[in-house]
Write a structure and sequence with these properties.
By secondary structure, the chain is α/β, with parallel strands linked by helices. It has 2 helices and 8 strands; from the N terminus they run βαββββαβββ. The strands form 2 sheets. It has a 4-stranded mixed sheet with strand order 1-4-3-2, covered by helices on one side. A 4-stranded mixed sheet has the order 5-8-7-6, with helices on one face. The radius of gyration is 14 Å and the shape is globular. This is VOC family protein.
Length: about 110
């Protein structure tokens, strides 16, 4: 079983570039007005529309704190906070924003 999460965007090229060049996702399928990306089995797509869906959170899960820290360095100014532990969920995480202002989370489960 698998799935894909789709988002409408007015800024398709910039958003796709962010996830490809900064996060490291690869194009899984290119369609006439949608690009479907994949990162370690996580598939998500952006479709050119006259509005932008900026609700929800795209969460990328890593195997170590070091990998989360490395991604923090890669996203640079897109990060809205430093990586930190979250005792409520037993994770190490940080949030960033993509070019649409959509929340993106990078985390590792600690337990």
């Amino acid at each position: 079983m698998s799935g894909i999460v789709f988002f409408a965007t007015e800024n398709r090229d910039a958003v796709v570039d962010f996830y490809r060049k900064t996060v490291g996702a690869e194009v899984w399928l290119e369609q006439p007005d949608c690009t479907i990306l994949e990162y370690d089995g996580f598939r998500f797509g952006f479709c050119a529309r006259d509005h932008t869906d900026d609700c929800g959170i795209l969460t990328f899960v890593f195997d170590s704190r070091e990998a989360v820290d490395a991604m923090h360095e890669r996203v640079g100014d897109a990060a809205v906070e430093d990586p930190h532990g979250n005792e409520t969920y037993d994770i190490y995480q940080f949030f960033a924003e993509d070019p649409d202002g959509r929340t993106t989370e990078f985390q590792v489960f600690e337990d």
